[in-house]
Predict the structure.
Amino acid sequence: MFVDNDLNPVLGIDLGTTFSAIARWDGKGPRIYQTRTGDDTLQSVVYVDPKTNELLVGKVAFRRGLIYPENMAFGIKRYMDDADQKIIIGDRAFSPIELSAKILERLYKDVADKCPVNLFQSRGTVVTVPYYFKAHQCENTRKAAEIANINCIGLIQEPIAASLSYAWQLVQACPEKEFAENILVFDLGGGTFDLTLFRLEQSQSKLLFEVLATGGDDRLGGMDFDECLLEFLLKKSGLTLNNLSPLEARKARQKILEQVIEAKHTLSSTQLEYVTVTDVIPGKHIDTTVTRSEFEACIQSYIDKIDRTIDKLWITANMQPSQVDRVILVGGSSKIPRLKSLVSDLITAQKVYDNTNPWLCVAEGAAIYAAYLDNREVFGRDIEIRTRTSHALGVEIKDKEFYPLIAANRKTPCQQIQIFGTTADDQASLDIHVYQGCDRLVENNTLIGTISIADLPKRRKGELDIWVTFNVNEAQMLSVTVQVEGLRKAANLKFA
């Protein structure tokens, strides 16, 4: 059967906190699409033009936002935990899902515009999510793809996608070789930090990915490093923004931010950089130098936090750093020399793999997975992915008490069946609130959805058994089925 990988390809999208990317499968491997501006990545920034009400996405949105920051939104992925949150841009309000959809839509349109009008149509697209994303955050990402009119055939965790990119290179280089490796994916991007330890095994019939342990922080990344360096430069220049109005202070910060990001990148290859920002405050400027050691001192608290997270990983996995065979660096911030040396000192520099592009390997891996879902023979063997739950799952049906169902770090896919009873005579309905977390107190966990079961048969209190089956797949997506008196019952799992 002929497949047109130019006009009807499968796609992989890395929906990032600061930058996003899109790749396709061309029949021989993953290929990155460039944006309409000729870049390999798209800044995950949305801007509303106050004159035309037009929504701009990407580099032009970021540059316009430096002048009018009140009309710009960035770091949107950090808000995907709450679909109801309103992000105000100018005089308009958007949900995180809507803004994420705009980024996805722009990536897809940039690809479609390279083809003759109305002829491009993807056979299917895989979108990436951080490993730590909870079920409702994955669901919110899927909804964003739906709003963008993208045929999302699956989600894949970012570290698994990066490992697929690496595995593809191994398969290409040694298609007949059988091997087994322990791989650490160190993924430090603009807004999130994922640490994932895998077992990768290749045999003649199968490519196996088994997650051994995970760690990370959804509020740690390059954006935080930028903020630290910005504050350092203000202090070094003897400037304060405290006396400015909120809008003036935001404009001043955005003006400095552009130079901060450039200085951070430059300091990865040099020991000293000059930073000049005119009229931060009218008549007052930043005109100074920053050294690599000064920058590293700025972010030391984050470095310590990353170091502690790595230490916890070895305990969870019951392994020693010496048992790791390979480290894959993912995300632009992983290239910061101090962080790279942190990993190298633990595991040795010889094991740090540099053949994957830290900015693009996640999108490439997503495209590979899309190709596999489209055609299981793409690797010449089966792919099996065994993940683990990154969060415990439990329910609350009364008295604000959390009842654990599925433990954290449990192998997926997994299933748990729980029997619930009615708490009153002739009870007609039951709401089961589903949480992710590990604390016995509901308030310390995260509500991800509610199972609403209506039209229950009339019985005395406690005499009706309601069987609820919770299924968690490899992407940590949650599905629920309900049976009452042996019959499957329609139930609506509404995500929070």
